[in-house]
Request: fold
Amino acid sequence: MEPKQIVVTGVSRGLGRAMAKGFIAAGHTVHGCARDAAAIEVLGREHSAANTFTVVDVTRDDQVQAWADKVLGNAGPPDLLVNNAAIINRNAPLWELTAEEIAAILAVNVGGVANVIRHFVPAMVERRRGVIVNFSSGWGRSVSAEVAPYCATKFAIEGLTKALAEELPKGMAAVPLNPGIIDTDMLQSTFGSSASSYPSSEEWAQHAVPFILALGPADNGQSLSVEEE
Reply:
C-alpha cells in the first residue's frame, strides 16, 4: 500500500494511541493530537520525527485551525482523517446530569469533530481525494440507560457523517464507523470490571487498522463496523 498521511484525534490513549502505532508500523505517517501534554511528549519520543504529535483541544476552533495549518503546510492534505477523540458521561439518568456535563460531551464529541472537518477537509476536497472516518458507536445505532448524552452525540455523528458524504466530490468518502466494544478507560467507566472481558485496544488495532486503511470511495456514507475476529 502506498504510504499515507494520516490525521488522528485523541491519540493520547485507548483506540487513538493503538491506531497511531498501528498506522506507523504499517509504514504510514501520523499527525495526531490530544489534550494530554505528557502523553503527547511520550509519543513524540517513541516515533520518528516524520510523525507529529500536538497538544490540541478539539473543542477550541482556534487550536484546531493552528494545528491544521501546520500539518497542511508541512505534509499536505491527509489521505485519511480519523476523528476519534470523544468522552462519555458518568453513569446516571439524564435528569441527574448537569448542564455543564452535557455541554462538555456535546462540545468534544460533536463540536470537536466539526472543528477538525472545518480545517482539514477543504484541502482534501480541493485535491478530490481522501477518506474521513468519524468514530460512531454501537450507541450511535442503539441505546442504553444512563448514557443518554453519549448516545445522542454518536447518533449525531451518524447523521453528520452521512450528510457530509452527500457533500463530498466523487472519489472521496466519509464513513461513520462503529469500532466495536473494546476494553478502554471509557468502557471501564461504564461497564466497570466486566470491561476486561473485551479485547484490549492493541488487540483491536491488529484488525481495525487494516480495515480502516482499506476504506475508499465505495464506502462513502455507509454505516460500517469493525467486526471482531
In short: The CA atoms of residues 92 and 146 lie 4 Å apart. The first strand starts at residue 5 and ends at 9. The mean pLDDT is 95.
